[in-house]
């Protein structure tokens, strides 16, 4: 092959590599829920297949950042599942006590439980609808 | 309150319930990967928080259907994670032996391993690039 053809071939191979990079791992932003009870806020994050050792949790004022990763599958035939590194920063729905988070990882769901700064007072449902009485 | 106001209030409450139904559980279609080795095809499905007892797997010719569910969280403040029932039917990337699937659920990932109908023959990489020799 002559020089221009080789150069063109090289160019095509580079293009192909770039296209393959574009079609690479799906970017990963794990779905999150916030739930609460009277004294706690709980963050639930779907992180199936993530090793506990790869997870990092970092609180910073009114946000919490969770990072982790899972390896890309080998010998992939068809792929939809995200892989590689993720990093997600979420704002607390309300103020929590600093560094109060307790994390657990069960069946691929990371749950972090924070203490509310201002716990709410639970009112039994039988008392709802009645006007507060002065004492 | 007079009758028209009560009727209007009832109407508003019905509307609110309808809006809450619309904003209900996110429909769930778990992400799936297919990987292979020479003799097997593997399906990997992200099902974090799903109880093994709720999972059903059904093979039907050239497709496999997986169904399951996880309960909706209580006292949700902000929600992104899908919940409720899912059902996904996937076609095999190539033919498998009927009823050969072996399922396991680890860290929220369901893996089902099927035997290929036509296992491929692995060629050691050191033999690649050499022309086959007649015997």
From TrEMBL, chains A, B:
<dbReference type="Pfam" id="PF00011">
    <property type="entry name" value="HSP20"/>
</dbReference>
<comment type="similarity">
    <text>Belongs to the small heat shock protein (HSP20) family.</text>
</comment>
<feature type="domain" description="SHSP">
    <location>
        <begin position="23"/>
        <end position="131"/>
    </location>
</feature>
<dbReference type="InterPro" id="IPR008978">
    <property type="entry name" value="HSP20-like_chaperone"/>
</dbReference>
<dbReference type="InterPro" id="IPR031107">
    <property type="entry name" value="Small_HSP"/>
</dbReference>
<protein>
    <submittedName>
        <fullName>Heat-shock protein</fullName>
    </submittedName>
</protein>
<dbReference type="InterPro" id="IPR002068">
    <property type="entry name" value="A-crystallin/Hsp20_dom"/>
</dbReference>
